[in-house]
């Protein structure tokens, strides 16, 4: 009987270990396709493979989100100040906010969202969306990015998206480095330390 328990326990342990290994390997191999091009808050093109000099902290939002998205953006504003004091923001790392609702979140809407958080309109923190006139193709582009990072989302039909609650740090080649919880669980110090460790 003890042997059966031992075999069952070992099988469970190996199953859990295999599952953990699968997710770690999957995340480690994740990378955003370099040819994906979206438009920013100024209707300028942004291609992920164009600049290979900076780390990127990527946040997925939709501007009608009532809680976790604006909370994360606010915490990133505070993080940005710490990185500016260190002299690395915009030089070694940039922030990228991507809407998962490009139909409603036009460049104009994203610009207003930025202003609401006191975020300067520049190239150091870009807000990305798609062309409303070609929305299906643009949604597919955004899906390429979310799929690469295993970020999942769905509109149940009421305009309030259900989505994964992670932000992502990727390297200069758009490869996955780390992920962090969104909202109130976004630990600013932890993210700062990960960024600085990667830079140094």
TrEMBL record:
It comes from the Bacteria. Gene3D superfamilies: Glutaredoxin (3.40.30.10). InterPro entries: SCO1/SenC, Thioredoxin-like_sf. Pfam families: SCO1-SenC. SUPFAM superfamilies: Thioredoxin-like (SSF52833). Belongs to the SCO1/2 family. This is SCO2-like protein. It comes from Neobacillus kokaensis.
